[in-house]
Amino acid sequence: MELDNIIQARSVWEYFRNCGLPVVLYGMGDGADKVLAAFERFGIEAAAVMASDGFVRGQTFHGYRVMTLAEVEARFGDFAVALCFASQLPEVMQAIKAVAARHKTLVPSVPVFGGVLFDDEFISGNIDKLRAAYALMADDLSRRVYENVLMFYRTGRLELLDGITTGKSEAFSLLDLGKNEVYVDLGAYNGDTIDEFLYYSGGTYRKIIALEPNAKNFEKLKAHCGGMERVELWQLGAWSENAVLTFNNKAGRNSAVADHGVQTRVAAVDSLLCGIKAGYVKADVEGADYETLIGMKKTLKAKPKLNFAAYHRFEDIFRLPLLIHELNPEYRIYLRHHPYIPAWDTNIYAV
To answer: Domain containing 37: what range?
Structure first.
C-alpha cells in the first residue's frame, strides 16, 4: 500500500482552509455538529448552511439560517460544499452528486463514534498498524477498498467510492452460507438483518441467536420474529464481558454506549453461546465492534464466518482485521464497501 501517497495528499481540512471560496455546510444534525467542531479546530470558517429543498423550513442551525441551494447560489455564486450527512438511498446519493456536479463538494470525514479524526497525527501514530492490516487483505478488491477508503478519509473525494462500491450479493458469495447455519446477529435492530440472512441462506437454518440492546427496537424484533422456530432473542448489547453499561437510548440503529442515558445489560458472546458452535456472526454494534471481538475469543476458535462493520471508528479499519487475525490466524479477511455516502457500510468479511 502506498501510504506515502495518502500522507502527501491534500487533506480535506487543508482544502477548505485554503480554497479561497466560501465554504457551505450541506446538511444539519450530528454530522454537521462534528464538522463544525473540526472546522474550529483546523481554523476553517463556514459561510453558510444549506439543506435539500424539502428540508428548508426557515430554521436555523448553529446561528446560521438554513438555505436552499438556489439561495446559496444567489448569495455566493461559486462556493465549496462540505457534505455533512450520510445516506444509502439512491435518490439522495444522486442528489449529492448533482450538487457536486455544480460545485466543488468534499466530505469531511468525522467518526460515527468517538472523537478521533483521521488527520496527520492519526496516520503517523498508526502507520505500522495500517500497513499490517493491509497485508492481511485477502484479494485485490479488498486492497483497493482499503486504499480508497483511507484516501477518502484523507481527502473527502466522492469519486474514490465509485470504483470500489459493490453489492451485498458479491460479499455474501464470499460467506457462502449453508442451509444449516447457527446465525448470531449482534445488533439485530428490527429484524432486517435476520431477513437478509434468510435470503442468502435460502430460508433454512439450525438456530438464530439475536441481540438488540434498545428496548423499543427489541419489541419490534420480537414482533418481527413472532412464530419463527429456533430463534433466541436477547435484549442485550454485545461487549467484551458481561456487565451493565450506559447507552444513549437513541432510536433506530444508533443505540450505543454513551456517557449519559439508560442502564443497559451487555454480554460477551462466548458467555451466551455456552459451547454452541456459531456458523455465521454478523456484528453492527455501533462502535463496540472491537470489544465485541474480545468477547468472542472462544467463539472464533471454531472459525465462524464473520460480517463486521469497519467504519464506526477510523481505527476499526485496521484494528479489527488485526484482532481477528490474532484470535484465529486461519481466517481469510476481505473488505467491501456497499452503496453509501460517505464510506459507511464498509464491512469486514472473514471466512
So the answer is: 3-162
